[in-house]
Amino acid sequence: MFKHHHIVAVVPARDEALAIALVIRDIRAVMNIDGEPLFDRIVVCDNASSDDTQSIAARGGAEVVFEPCAGYGAACLAALSSIDQTDIIVFIDADQSLKVDEAKDLVSAIYDGADLVIGSRKQHLREPGSMSPPQLFGNLLASFLIRLIWQIAVSDLGPFRAIRFEALQKLDMQNRSFGWTVEMQVKAIQFGLRMTEVPVHYRRRVGQSKISGTFKGVLFAGIGIISTIIKLALRQAKMVENQIDR
User: For the whole prediction, is pTM greater than 0.70?
Assistant: First the structure.
């Protein structure tokens, strides 16, 4: 709870047995200004894990849902399907790359008027080796395309983010794979939501990344992100064209 705002942590997780208990511990340790838990619920989506992610998360006190189809967006959608009502959703990675206590900064920005807050992994706050060169390039390229097409200042597609629940519902999120984060940011722009960035730290993850850990992962993530940007831009252009024709 943050100033009477109900807050849910959503944690998509696939084969994160090495880190998930630590992440849940970190989430439960975050306190608000009154010394009470910041998060009212922790929902972990076990995304077809082949390890003990699901049982470890449950033992840690999280609510666990299961999504058999692999995909970051699919896991997020499955977790959200279990949430009927709240005020703020905070998305947190399950690999302990994030300093979860910084969620207070994201939530505070929501309280101050933002609809969507992105945790921007600034260079001086990134641990060396926390992002691979292909990750850095892809992130820079995607951010550049968003700035170029929509003329909105974007520096990162960071997964650490907070959003008003009612705003998230308006976005009607669809992407079930790597394009989830960029879909959220682009749709937020298209819907005229108030979006801001907050600097956050970023550490080397526990265990191997499903994206940056393999060439195939990097390739498919890049294709998914860029294709999502192009698809949303073309859809917007078509809508504008139809309105002009009327």
Answer: yes
